């Protein structure tokens, strides 16, 4: 299903009537959908790709805007002071304040820009931005697909580890019972020390296997909790 990128599908039919969906498979699909919907709202790499898609859409809108006429309104004010401006009566330089007032000028204007010669280049930029936006959309889809597949694998692994842990715990209980029996038989001289050590080693291996499965199950649960948006690390305790 992952290789064919089948989304929201919990079964594929190899032969008619060969495979039927069970209740556990439906629950697993529901769990992974809920986890994925929660994760895609806060996972940084997904948010980054979404921002890239939004930016590419803005760039495309800007490129399209270059083909439309633009109307601009402008206004200005200017004045000046010159030491060469003399009073013809007194022969003195006209004061600064008087020159600022007398030399003042104001202007208002409107300009209309109609793109004609750059039409082809503008359309070329639009096509380039469309390609860029498609690439951004595809990158986002790929990231979502990869994250969905990862969550799908984690959910399946969690179910497998649950079964494995249950079986491992049963084997450990059986080995504990077997070792207790072997110990009593050894005390009565029915078995040798070698056979007792063999039973003890089997018990140690069973406990070690059970511990490994338990640690893997805890790691899997913490990883799924992260994608659910739940707190994983106790920051206060770490500090």
Explained architecture:
There is one protein chain. The protein has 239 residues and is mainly α. The chain has two domains: 23-61 and 121-231, Outer membrane efflux proteins (OEP) (Up-down Bundle); 69-113, no CATH class. Helix content is 65%, strand content 8%. It is built from six helices and two strands, in the order H-H-E-H-E-H-H-H. It has helices at 23-39, 44-65, 96-102, 119-187, 193-228, 235-238, and strands spanning 70-78, 105-113. A two-stranded antiparallel sheet has the order 1-2. The longest helix has 69 residues, at 119-187. The protein is elongated. The two termini are 44 Å apart.
Order of strands, widest sheet: 1-2
Helix residue percentage: 55-70%
* CATH class category name of the largest domain: Mainly Alpha
Rough outline? elongated
End-to-end Cα distance: 44 Å
- Total separate domains: 2
Report the radius of gyration as a whole number of Å. Answer: 39 Å
Topology, please?
Blueprint: H1 23-39, H2 44-65, E1 70-78, H3 96-102, E2 105-113, H4 119-187, H5 193-228, H6 235-238
Antiparallel strand pairs: 1-2
Helix pairs in contact: 1-4, 1-5, 2-4, 4-5
Short description:
The protein is built from six helices and two strands, in the order H-H-E-H-E-H-H-H. The protein has helices spanning 23-39, 44-65, 96-102, 119-187, 193-228, 235-238; strands at 70-78, 105-113.
């Amino acid at each position: 299903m992952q290789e064919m990128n089948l989304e929201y599908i919990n079964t594929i039919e190899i032969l008619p009537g060969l495979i039927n969906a069970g209740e556990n498979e439906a629950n697993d699909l529901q769990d992974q959908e809920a986890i994925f919907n929660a994760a895609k709202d806060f996972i940084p790499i997904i948010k980054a790709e979404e921002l890239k898609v939004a930016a590419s859409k803005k760039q495309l809108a800007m490129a399209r805007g270059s083909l439309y006429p633009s109307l601009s309104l402008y206004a200005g004010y200017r004045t000046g002071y010159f030491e060469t401006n003399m009073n013809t009566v007194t022969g003195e330089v006209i004061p600064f304040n008087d020159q600022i007032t007398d030399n003042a000028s104001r202007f208002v204007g409107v300009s209309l820009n109609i793109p004609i010669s750059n039409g082809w280049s503008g359309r070329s930029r639009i096509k380039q931005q469309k390609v860029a936006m498609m690439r951004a959309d595809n990158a986002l889809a790929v990231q979502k697909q990869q994250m969905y597949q990862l969550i799908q694998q984690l959910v399946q692994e969690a179910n497998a580890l649950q079964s494995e842990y249950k079986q491992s715990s049963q084997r450990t209980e059986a080995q504990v019972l077997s070792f207790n029996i072997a110990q009593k038989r050894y005390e009565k001289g029915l078995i040798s020390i070698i056979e007792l050590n063999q039973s003890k080693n089997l018990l140690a291996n069973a406990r070690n296997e059970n511990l490994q499965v338990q640690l893997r199950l805890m790691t899997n649960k913490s990883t799924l909790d992260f994608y659910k948006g739940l707190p994983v690390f106790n920051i206060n305790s770490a500090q």
